[in-house]
Write a structure and sequence with these properties.
heterodimer; A: globular; B: alpha/beta; 5-stranded parallel β-sheet; 6 helices; globular
Chain lengths: 264, 209
């Protein structure tokens, strides 16, 4: 495998700097946030690299668990950060955390113990990249689904209340919004499946091939990952929408939108 | 408690936006009128009776000779019995007809001046007056015992307004139901109110019962 030097990366980063200048000349106001996010990305990944080297060599279960919990927490937080209307702080983080952990974590443990079966099963070289792939993808979908639900609940308040007044349950009254939310969460995932291998070469597979793995082996891993992503995205979204839907009503099934805060 | 003719009773209902807590009683066949300046909490009062908003106080409705307590039955069940009809209607499906479990008969439609073809249209294509009347039929299909009517004739011309009044009066008589009706029209109030059942809301003064 051909190794890349740090200077190569520095040289490549001039591309982003150039892009920022051109964007700014074209009236794009968020250039600082582009630079900041790029710097943050590099710092986070470098930190992850150093940290993973340590975790990989130690093979300590508790350390793997700690890394996983930090990743889950960050994913849960990112989900809520992307909402236009958020639930009051703790509920929001809890919904994100619960939905993403229940699916990603269960699937991860399942696939490690039953399918891949490294020894020990929590071997960080497998567990952590897999978890990262699952979280990254389900995070986006769950965020989209929740955003659609809360935004529509605020905008279509009258339609929900009209159904409640007719004696429909909270669940029934929210059903039309839930359908739209599932739609907006799942369509990008379905599109990703369709594009895989024709339009896009998925990142993990590309990485493995660059690292010298036989393409067909890389493909098998990629298919496994895709299947896990679809399952964790779908189930995670269902759980998140269920939890969020409950938060929109009180114990007497009255619509309570005061629990939602509009993001600045 | 044992008044045999009462059908619906409330004790000290209070929701935010209202001046004072309100207690009242209605018997079968009665229509009570509510008037008052905007912002005096009239709609809040009716929504509280339907348990659509947080409130204090007690509300009961007679069902098969037993009093049902609002706090003790499922909200969905209560709201089918004590139904709120809002001034602004809302529709969540693509066709008016999709909001009904059963098709409407021609006489039902013509009784309040609605044309059959409107029934299959998208709610966005109808005027607010037409939608108000369809929303009324949509709710009455569940045969509620108590009708809480929040300015439901606000967008109607005088002729259809009287047709709607007639429909409500007939419904209340035939189903041994009762109604509370918010209206700003003094003539409508005198036309409809059963034996001086009339509450005047104001932002500061108390509502009598």
């Amino acid at each position: 495998m051909i190794l890349i030097s740090y200077w190569d990366l520095v040289a490549l980063s001039s591309l982003v700097i150039l892009l920022g200048v051109v964007l700014w000349l074209n009236g794009f106001k968020r250039v600082p946030s582009l630079y900041w996010s790029t710097t943050r990305m590099a710092a986070q990944l470098l930190f992850m690299g150093v940290w993973l080297t340590y975790v990989f060599t130690s093979e300590n279960f508790w350390l793997v668990l700690l890394v996983s919990v930090i990743m889950l927490g960050a994913a849960g937080y990112e989900i809520t950060r992307r909402q236009q209307y958020r639930f009051t702080k703790w509920h929001a983080v809890l919904i994100g955390f619960m939905s993403i952990s229940l699916t990603s974590l269960v699937l991860l443990v399942g696939v490690l113990t039953l399918t891949i079966q490294p020894d020990p099963w929590y071997q960080p070289q497998y567990a952590i990249p897999l978890l990262g792939m699952l979280l990254g993808n389900s995070m986006t979908a769950i965020g989209l689904g929740l955003d659609t639900m809360t935004r529509n609940a605020v905008q279509m308040r009258a339609r929900i209340e009209a159904q409640l007044a007719l004696g429909k349950t909270a669940k029934q009254s929210l059903d039309f919004i839930k359908q739209q939310s599932l739609h907006s969460a799942m369509i990008p995932v379905i599109n990703m499946l369709v594009a895989a291998g024709i339009i896009s070469l998925p990142g993990m597979m590309t990485g493995q091939i660059l690292a010298g793995i036989a393409p067909i082996e890389a493909v098998k891993y990629q298919i496994l990952i895709m299947l896990l992503i679809v399952a964790s995205t779908g189930f995670g979204t269902l759980i998140a929408l269920h939890l969020a839907g409950k938060q929109l009503f009180d114990h007497r099934q009255r619509l309570r939108l005061e629990g939602l805060i509009k993001a600045k | 408690m044992t008044n045999p003719t009462s059908l619906f009773k409330t004790k000290s209902i209070y929701a935010s936006g209202m001046g004072n807590p309100i207690s009242l009683r209605l018997s079968a066949g009665q229509i009570g009128m509510i008037s008052g300046e905007s912002g005096s909490g009239k709609s809040q009062f009716l929504k509280a009776l339907a348990d659509l908003i947080e409130h204090q106080g007690e509300t009961f409705v007679l069902d098969n000779q037993a009093w049902l307590d609002q706090r003790k039955i499922l909200p969905a069940h209560w709201r089918k019995k004590v139904m709120y009809f809002s001034a602004e209607t809302a529709w969540w499906l693509d066709k008016i007809s999709a909001h009904f479990n059963e098709p409407l008969s021609d006489e039902t439609l013509s009784a309040i001046g609605l044309e059959r073809r409107l029934f299959e249209q998208n709610p966005d294509q109808l005027s607010s007056g037409e939608k108000q009347r369809f929303a009324l039929l949509r709710g009455l299909a569940y045969q509620p015992t108590v009708l809480l009517l929040d300015e439901i004739t606000a967008n109607l011309d005088p002729k259809t307004e009287q047709q709607v009044e007639q429909l409500i009066q007939d419904y209340v008589q035939q189903h041994q139901a009762c109604a509370l009706w918010i209206s700003h029209d003094p003539q409508q109030q005198t036309r409809l109110a059963s034996s001086a059942l009339h509450w005047q809301f104001s932002a500061t003064a108390e509502g009598d019962a």
